[in-house]
Amino acid sequence: MKIYHPSKSVKIDVPLVSSKSESNRALIIQASATEEIELSNISMARDTQTMMRLLDSSEETLDVLDAGTTMRFLTAYATANNRKSIMTGTPRMQDRPIGILVDALRSIGANIEYLKKDGYPPHQINNFEQTSDTVNIRGDVSSQYISALLLVAPTLPKGLKVILEGEVNSKPYILMTLSLMESFGIKYTWVENEIIVAPQEYKSGAYTIESDWSGASYWYSIAALADVAEIKILNLRENSLQGDKAIVEMMKQLGVESTFEADGVRLTKTARADKFFFDFTHCPDLAQTIVALVAALGMEGRMIGLQSLRIKETDRIAALQNEIKKLGLEIEVVGDEEIIVPKGGITIEGQSINTYEDHRMAMAFAPLSILGQLEIDEPEVVEKSYPSYWKDLEAAGFVTE
Ligand SMILES: O=C(O)C1=C[C@@H](OP(=O)(O)O)[C@@H](O)[C@H](O)C1
Ligand SMILES: C=C(OP(=O)(O)O)C(=O)O
User: Fold this and answer.
1) Is any atom of ligand 2 closer than 6 Å to the C-beta of 285?
2) CA pair distance 149, 93, nearest whole angstrom
3) CDD domains, from UniProt (predicted)?
4) What residues form DSSP beta bridges with 12?
5) Do domains 2-18+211-400 and 20-208 have the same CATH topology?
6) Are 311 and 141 in contact (CB under 8 A)?
């Protein structure tokens, strides 16, 4: 699909998609509760629609497609509810590790077998009888394993003590899980590296899902690149549960100021710093937006804390390196966790971007089409988290054909 922006002036109130991370947690809580839970503004993201469909399904095989949270949260949920299931997904999902979660569930009494490769989906969940109230789990691969355990913890007969080992990455996602649990009456303690959740029931309540801060990042990139930007993103809150609100801080270096209003956040252009630096350990989903943007602005940048990018929808470090190279700039990758963008700049006009079946590759590069016409491969990948992305961009004056 070709995309360009004829005027480089963007004036819009964006009706952003709602958060798939909040939605998928809230849906597991709703399914685990005996009392009524009312959820509003559930995300239209495919990952959330898949979660809803599978929670309602009576089939034995649960195919999550490419949804990481759906795979991890449903693995723990099916186990805790003694729901005999085969968990599977796309070929890429079958290459995304799940062994740390399966080992944790096995250590408290689950009987789970791998059907292809040890440590990876597909896997079969058999019977579960809780034999222990304590799990030890490393926190440096994916926080989703920890959130998955916590969401079911109150419903386990013995409750759960989760002992976190080593570094904990993506920590705001764990805090989001606990905050949402707390909204439905759950008490917990987190002291040093131990999170304790006693057996208890989720209480009735209502919750409105916030818009998606990860999706907001593409609008910040548009604001930074446009000549004129009058952009307001609707339904974002200053006291968000989402760690990707870190985009507000990050974009101060990249020339965009945020002002919170009652119904959303207003973006204004300001001066930018000479060099960009940020640690993405706790907000990995923002990395592609920012690497692409810094390259497009011709700035020098250093991004660290990127270790989880290699095991997401694609190897995102390799994907960024390949695509930015096509635009004429060699980014430097240091080990598995750091990218250095050299000062210079890129050429956009007439170039084409491969998206590697990764929604964030498409969404992170599309804003660069303010600077020239781009071709974006497999535009439908955005369905995973932000199905109305292209429609929203068209409303902001982008032309797609
Ligand atoms: O819990 C969540 O909702 C998520 C956690 C993060 O994954 P990791 O914990 O694997 O970094 C993030 O990348 C993903 O998009 C959503
Ligand atoms: C990594 C992501 O999602 P998940 O891990 O849930 O597939 C993402 O949305 O960028």
Assistant:
1) yes
2) 19
3) EPSP_synthase
4) 231
5) yes
6) yes
Chain centroid to CA 68: how far?
A: 9
Cα of 69 to ligand 1 centre, how many Å? 7
287 neighbors 363 (Cβ within 8 angstroms): no
Segments making up each domain of the chain, as ranges: 2-18+211-400, 20-208
Residue 242 marked ligand-binding: no
pLDDT band, very low/low/confident/very high, at 345 (cuts 50, 70, 90): confident
Residue 285: active-site member: yes
Digit-coded pLDDT (tens) for 69-91: 999 999 999 999 999 999 999 99
Q: How far apart are CA 146 and CA 153, in angstroms?
A: 10
Distances (CA, A) of 330 to 8, 119, 152, 247, 333: 26, 34, 45, 25, 9
- Tell me the fold of 2-18+211-400: UDP-n-acetylglucosamine1-carboxyvinyl-transferase; Chain (3.65.10)
- For the record, the structure tokens of 138 come out as 């490393």
Q: Which of 47, 66, 212, 285 is catalytic?
A: 285
The residue nearest atom 1 of ligand 2, judged by CA position, is 312
Give the CATH number of domain 20-208. Answer: 3.65.10.10
Q: Are 48 and 20 in contact (CB under 8 A)?
A: yes
pLDDT tens digits, 92-104: 999 999 999 999 9
Cβ of 68 below 6 Å from ligand 2: yes
Cα(319)–Cα(341) distance, rounded to whole angstroms?
Answer: 14
Question: 200 CA to middle of ligand 1, Å?
Answer: 26
- pLDDT over 70, % of the chain: 100
> Length of the chain in residues, anyone?
401
pLDDT score recorded for residue 354:
98
pTM for the complete prediction? 0.98
> Which residue among 21, 69, 320 has the greatest number of ligand 2 atoms within 8 angstroms of its CB, and so is best to mutate?
69
**Averaged pLDDT, 189-196:** 98
